[in-house]
Amino acid sequence: MSDRPCCSPSGERDRPPAARKPPPRHAPEGIGLLAEDLVELQGGVFTMGTNRTYGYPADGEGPAHEVELSPFSIGRRAVTNGQFAEFVAATGHRTEAEEFGWSFVFAGVVPANFPDTAAVAAAPWWRQVEGSDWAHPEGPHSSWKDRAEHPVIHVSWNDARAFCAWTGTRLPTEAEWEYAARGGLAGARFPWGEELEPGGEHRMNVFQGSFPGGNTGADGYDGTAPTGRFPANGFGLHEMTGNVWEWTADRFDPGYYRRSPRLNPAGPERGAMRVMRGGSYLCHASYCNRYRVDSRSASGPDSSTGNLGFRAARDA
């Protein structure tokens, strides 16, 4: 089990999934699906990471260091249920949650009359719900169809990579993700600046109230929000923080920033975990202050949860 269960639990599954097919090498079939969602960014030099102390030394958020990126494109929003459904319909892809038969669901969105579920010992608000997957976000009684514009969840890193291969895209590197999330601002904690709620305005979907049992929904949502619902940052990108964690391409190493190359860093060559960025609708200052542009966490590549999705990127 990961040492970060509050954010997105990662654990060994009870049985192995079916053998996964490698990404296709031929021309991607779904290449037009994300055409209108991709935003071209010029790249350049920016300061990645932070020298501030937020209480998560194991995350390796520092030191702050200069990075230079080549031009690239990235999704203006996270990949949605509707888009993922098109991928599944065209390819027959079965996610790892479907293969395993379960995924992690936040207890706060599980109905009171739902059958008993196993909880994560270090974070009992996470429940192992049989039959939960991208198409059934809270279990068999739920469906993606009434939330087509919400970000797809319960997708593993491997599932996200398969979607990207079909659409002719890829997962962003961690450095690309942070550059995009900052929206042109230097040193700020959030995509819009330093204040969490400037002028009392909610700029992202995070937990409101007393975690884990007292979500007031003051920002308008108890669970995920539709993509594009909150204001875009300076690059025209929505929900870079909050709503759902987002997979990146990189392997995770808390000491990587100390030896990261300056030009187009792509993460360490070895590591069992993959980096995820941005926080989610479950982040709260009292226990998980990771809804920042400079925060980072990690999970296993076959892990899936109800607060973890992704957005696509592409070379310029």
Keywords, please?
alpha+beta; paralog of FGE (formylglycine-generating enzyme); 4-stranded mixed sheet; 3-stranded antiparallel sheet
Secondary-structure blueprint of this entry?
Elements: E1 38-41, E2 44-48, E3 65-69, E4 72-75, H1 81-91, H2 96-100, E5 102-106, E6 118-120, E7 123-130, H3 157-167, H4 174-182, E8 209-210, E9 214-215, E10 245-251, E11 274-277, E12 297-299, E13 308-309, E14 313-315
> What count of structural domains?
1
Q: Distance between termini?
A: 38 Å
Shape: globular
Question: How confident is the prediction overall: mean pLDDT?
Answer: 90
What's the number of helices? 4
Biggest sheet details? 4 strands, mixed
CATH class: Alpha Beta
Named at the architecture level, the CATH assignment is Alpha-Beta Complex
User: Which residues form runs of ≥5 with pLDDT under 50?
Assistant: none
Name the CATH superfamily assignment: paralog of FGE (formylglycine-generating enzyme)
Order of strands in the sheet with most strands: 12-11-10-13
Return the structural class.
alpha+beta
Q: What portion of residues belong to β-strands? A: 15-25%
CATH topology: paralog of FGE (formylglycine-generating enzyme)
Rg measurement, Å: 18 Å
Give the helices and strands as they follow along the chain. EEEEHHEEEHHEEEEEEE
Helix content: 10-25%
In total, the number of strands is 14
